[in-house]
Design goal:
Elements lengths: L1 H22 L1 H34 L7 H77 L1 H193 L2 E7 L16 E3 L6 E6 L2 E6 L2 E3 L5 H14 L5 E8 L5 H5 L8 H15 L4 E13 L2 E4 L8 E2 L2 E2 L7 E2 L6 E2 L3 H18 L3 H6 L2 E12 L5 E10 L13 H25 L11 H5 L1 H4 L4 E8 L6 H16 L4 H8 L5 H4 L19 H18 L1
Parallel strand pairs: 1-5, 1-15, 6-14, 6-15
Antiparallel strand pairs: 2-3, 3-4, 7-8, 7-12, 7-13, 8-9, 10-11, 13-14
The structure holds adenosine-5'-diphosphate and magnesium ion (MG).
Amino acid sequence: QVETLKEKLLEQAQEISRLRSELGGTDAEKHRDLLAAENERLRQEMKALEGELQRQQQAPCRDCPHLQENAELQEQLSQLQREAEETRARLVELDLEVQQKTNRLAEVELRLKDSLAERAEEEERLSRRLRDSQETIASLKSQPQQIKYIIKTVEVESAKVKQALCETQSRNQYLQEQVGMQKQVLKEMEQQLQSSQKTEAQLRAQIMMYEAELERAHGQMLEEMQAMEDEKNHAIEEAFSRAQVEMKAVHENLAGVRTNLLTLQPALRTLTHDYNSLKRQVRDFPLLLQETLRSARAEISQAIEEVHSTNRELLRKYRRELQLRKKCHNELVRLKGNIRVFGRVRPITKEDGEGPEAANAVTFDADDDAVLHLLHKGKQVSFELDKVFPPQASQEEVFQEVQALVTSCIDGYNVCIFAYGQTGAGKTYTMEGTAANPGINQRALQLLFSEVRGKAADWDYTITVSAAEIYNEALRDLLGKEPQEKLEIKLCPDGSGQLYVPGLTEFRVQSVEDINKVFEFGHIKRVTECTNLNEHSSRSHALLIVTVRGLDRSTGLRTTGKLNLVDLAGSERVGRSGAEGSRLREAQHINKSLSALGDVIYALRSRQGHVPFRNSKLTYLLQDSLSGDSKTLMMVQVSPAEKNTSETLCSLKFAERVRSVELGPVSRKAELGSWPSQEHLEGDSPGSSAPAGRGHASPSPGQLSSRSASIRRKLHTSG
Ligand code: ADP
Ligand code: MG
């Protein structure tokens, strides 16, 4: 048994040594070192390549189309490097593993050694005991007695030995188990080693592959670099040649520029010169400007002075012209006659009735608007006035002939417009008109307003209106608070010789509305004062006195013009038989005042030294407006009706006589006689006698008329 154990022990020792040699820790370590060296070499190479790469990157070929590719390759390289790194890491891992395993192996070996040592010790001990036992056996054999005894003891002791053997056997068993286990471990480790070797081979292959790839990439890169280099060189060459060409062109240009420069130099010189002169001018400019300003100022002030003097001259001329105009106007009016006589024939109305009485007795001359024919008692009598308005003449047409007179009032002239004629002949219609168709009064005021407005730029005008009535030689204010009060006509206390009526109400008017109010007011007064307005109005003179006062703002010139619009009392004869009391008195007053008016006009036209203004209230009141360069218009109203022909005849005779009064011998001749009274106008009325207070002789109207007409004709023909 011991022998077999020994054999087994030997075998195991051999096995252990074999295993140890086989384990080849050294081989793996060598391999690992080799790999590490290889790794190091690769690393070095990589570093060198990287250096190269960096160098190339630092000197990159600009505009190189391979840059992109290069970048890609670099990317690939870095990828490969990364992979190599990974592999390396794995290699390190594996190295670590191998190390661990080697450590474990060393441990196991150590344990194995220990157990072997133990076994050897045990064997030693056992062999010693065996020897002891054998010696003992031998000694015993030599000492049979003793041996017997000893055998006996051995036999006794052999049980003990047997037990020890058993123990040793069990121990051997245990050790064998241990060895089996160790073998198992060894096997495992071998397997592990194999697998690690396999992995190592794989890794090596991979590394080889990577290396090949790296090599390839390196080669490719080198190729690329070479190509890039070539390209770069090519580009450089090309650029060089191009630059040479360009250089040549630049040289040529330079030559051209040089020649240009040569030609430009004189221009530059002139420019510099100009610039210098400009600079000088700029420097001198303020002075020059001041000078110019001074002279301009002087010129302007001179011009202003000139304009001033021209203005003064113009103003002087304007004033002279104004005066001249006035003079011319006066002359014109004088030539036309200060006193003009118009006739107006009203249309036949319903009031004229029907039948032969209402037949038309008035006809007109188609060629001459100043001529009118009246059929009276079968005879046609013709009259020539300044103008005749037929029945169809409108208020407007009439006013058109009058408006020149009205406007002259603005220039400071006094104007009188009388409406003369028998009651019902249209006096009030002509002067006042109707609301729908106003007469001269309203139209005149409207015209004055518009004229004044037109002159408002230079003139300030005020227009005032008074309304008065003369009845039975008594003057009454129609706009006053006490219409019954009789007003007196007085001389102005300022010694100007002007007349005025103290207490006569004056209204300032500025618009048509104002006039209407004034007229309405006057009317109401008149209506409330008498029972029969028509009758009353036909027996009184109604006056509308318009005063226009002007101030020329530029010259300070003041003007005052008066427009007297008079609606006279009816001129019809009042039958003396039967007329008594107040009726007779009225008739006498009317006759007196109308004759006085005729006398005054006659005296004025014939330039008599004495004009009998004081013979009636009317003429006395209108004295200022009748004398001097005043203008008078007598509008003689007639009815065309057959029944009114004798009155019409009287009125027309009155008109013609007023008009035909001429200057010169006739007027001187006429100076002796007075104006024919109302009674004398009724030339054909039998048994007529002058009324009380009217006893002056006068030439027959017929004589006067025909004579004056012949004289006028003479004047006309002689020019
Ligand atoms: P007088 O004032 O002379 O007495 P009126 O002016 O009162 O006369 O006129 C008498 C009538 O005749 C009135 O009804 C008036 O309307 C009318 N009449 C006068 N003249 C004209 C005319 N030209 N056109 C139309 N009607 C007129
Ligand atoms: Mg009337």
